[in-house]
C-alpha cells in the first residue's frame, strides 16, 4: 500500500530559504535551498515542496534555476509553486524539473484555470494549496495572496470544489499554526481527510515527532514540515525511524546516514 | 562510450530521466533520430502524458518502426518508464473514444485498464511511494534489498498482462498493480525510477550496465 510521506517544505524569498511564524512574524534565514535539499535527500525524505512566497518576474527566474539545479542531483518528486497564474507558468516549472505545480490564489480567482491546467498537464501535476485561518472558534476561512487576503470560502468546501476541478492533491495549511511548532490542526485534518478523495498533505504546526504521528493518524497522506527540520534536532531520519517503530506505514529508511 | 538514447516523442519533461542517466555516469541524448537510436548502447522510452497523444506522436515520427528494428529485432537493451511501459501493451482504455481503446505498440500480450481498487478509500491517481514485491529476480533489481523496493508511482491506469511470466513485480493498491515487466532485452517499470531516490538510481544504474 502507499506509504505515508514526509515532505520538507521550503519557503523561498528572492531565492533564499526563509521561515516565518504565522506567515509574517519572525523572519529567519534558513540557508541555501539547494544545499539544504541535498542534505534532506541524503536523509531520504519522500518529496520536497518549494514555494516562492514573494513571487515576481525576477524571482520566477531564480526559482527555475534552483529547481533545475536540484533536479540534477536529487531524484525525488518536487512540488513547486508561488505566483502560478498561467499555463505557461506551469509549463515553465514542469520543464525546470517540477513534478507537480502548486496553485493557490489564482485557483480562487479563476477556478477555471485549475481545470485547464489539469486538462493540459494531467490531474496528478496539479496540487492546490489552501491556506486558512480560524476567524471564530467554529469557523475557518480561506486566505490568499500569501495569507494577506481573506476570501469568503470554507477551506473544506473549497478543497472539495478543487477536487471537482481535477486537482491531483491538496496541500492544506493552517496560518494560525504556521511556524509555531504547537501541533497540527487535527480537527481540520480529520474533517478534510474524511471527505476528500485526493491525497491530503497537511502543513502548519509540526514541532515534535508525536505531532507528525497525530496528523497521519488523523488521516493525512503526508506531513509537510518546515520549522521542525530547520530549527530542531528532529531530522527526517529520526522522524522516519520513529514513525516506523510506531507502526506507521512509511518507507523504511535507505539513507546511508542512518 | 556510446550514448544512451532517450526517445523524444514530444512529451514535456524528460529532464529528470536525462539527469539520472548523467548522474550514473553515462551520456544521455534526447532524440527521435533513427541513426542516433541505432548508435546508442541503451534506449529509454520515458513517459508522461496521455496514451493516445503519445502513440500519435510516436507513429507520426516513425518511431514505432525505429524501435521495432533496433529493440525488437536487434535486441538493444531497452527500458520503458510509466506511460512508456503502457505503450508496450496492445491497447489502452485511457480516454477511449466511443468505447474503442487506443492501440499501443503491442510488444506484450497486455492491455492497459483503469485502476479500480476494491476499496473506495483508496485514491486515484495511485500516487506516492509503494513497495514492489518480486515475482522473480531480474538484473535491473540486482543489489537492491527487497525491503528497499519502494518506488514512486503516479498513474491512474495500469497494465494487465496475459502472460504472468512477463511480470517481474507487482505493487499492491487494493488490487495487484503491474509494476515491472520484462522479456529478453526489454524491461519496463510503471513507477518512476528517476524519482525514486537511491533504489531508483540503483535500478537505472543496473539497467545502464545491462547487456542481455
What do these coordinates show?
The complex is a heterodimer of chains A (258) and B (212). Chain A has 258 residues and is α/β, with parallel strands linked by helices. In chain A, 38% of the residues lie in helices and 26% in strands. Chain A has helices spanning 33-42, 57-73, 87-96, 105-109, 111-121, 155-164, 186-195, 209-217, 227-231, 236-245; strands at 5-13, 16-21, 25-31, 48-52, 78-81, 100-103, 126-136, 139-144, 149-150, 169-174, 200-203, 222-225. In chain A, strands 1-4-5-6-7-10-11-12 form an 8-stranded parallel β-barrel, surrounded by 7 helices. Chain A is globular and about 45 Å long. The mean pLDDT of chain A is 94. Chain B is α/β, with parallel strands linked by helices and 212 residues long. Helices cover 25% and strands 33% of the residues of chain B. The radius of gyration of chain B is 16 Å and the shape is globular. The two termini of chain B are 18 Å apart. The interface between A and B is large, with 36 and 37 residues.
Short structural summary:
The complex is a heterodimer of chains A (258) and B (212). Chain A has 258 residues and is of the alpha/beta class.
Order of helices and strands of chain A: EEEHEHEHEHHEEEHEHEHEHH
Oligomer: heterodimer
Question: How large, in whole angstroms, is the Cα Rg of chain A?
Answer: 17 Å
Number of strands of chain A: 12
Distance N terminus to C terminus of chain A?
A: 24 Å
- The outline of chain A comes out as globular
Number of helices of chain A: 10
CATH superfamily of chain B: Class I glutamine amidotransferase (GATase) domain
Shape, principal axes of CA atoms of chain B: globular
